[in-house]
Specification:
Strand content: 35-45%
Order of helices and strands: EEEEEEEEEEEEEE
Strand order of the largest sheet: 1-6-3-4-5-2
Largest sheet: 6 strands, antiparallel
Structural class: mainly beta
Radius of gyration: 19 Å
Shape: globular
Helix content: under 10%
């Protein structure tokens, strides 16, 4: 089971309640969830009227369903939404709280990696000192593996890839 994110994936559904959504087919101009692949996870959004939910779900090709595994944000205070009757749009999204992004100065940010200010990268260079949060297994840099919670100081010109 892999995390898969694809562009222009959107289907409709008339599923009600808080359970798994049965998908009813792609919206015109969009791809169906089948591009995610059976048993793979993806970030999803569901919108129906004023109700919404953003989370991580698992697509199943048998029955064309999307399970709602983890809710990241919703109109129900971050919990599963009990969707009522009517057509809902279900689509693949890239949640802001999971995003890694680059600002106008070329600095990249991954705020989910730390409680205070996140991982700051300037043109591919990690800040000179960074505390890796607990809960992350390790960071590899060449032949070096750094355990979670470690404080790392690197030269300003170093380029690392965090895996």
């Amino acid at each position: 089971m892999a995390l898969v994110v694809k562009d222009r994936v959107q289907e409709t559904s008339t599923t009600t309640g808080t359970g798994t959504f049965t998908l009813a087919g792609a919206v015109a101009g969009f791809q169906s969830f089948s591009v995610i692949g059976n048993a793979n996870t993806t970030y999803y959004a569901i919108v129906g009227g004023s109700d919404f939910e953003v989370g991580l779900g698992t697509y199943t090709s048998s029955g064309t369903t999307l399970s709602r595994t983890t809710v990241l944000e919703s109109s129900n205070s971050g919990s599963l939404v009990n969707f009522s009757a009517g057509t809902k749009n279900v689509f693949v999204t890239y949640p802001a709280e999971k995003a890694v992004y680059q600002d106008a100065n070329g600095d990249a940010y991954a705020p989910q990696f730390a409680a205070s200010n996140g991982l700051s990268v300037n043109n591919g260079t990690i800040a000179t000192s960074y505390t890796f949060p607990t809960g992350y297994n390790s960071v590899e840099a060449g032949d070096v593996t750094i355990g979670s919670g470690a404080i790392v100081t690197v030269p300003a010109t170093s380029r690392w890839v965090i895996v």
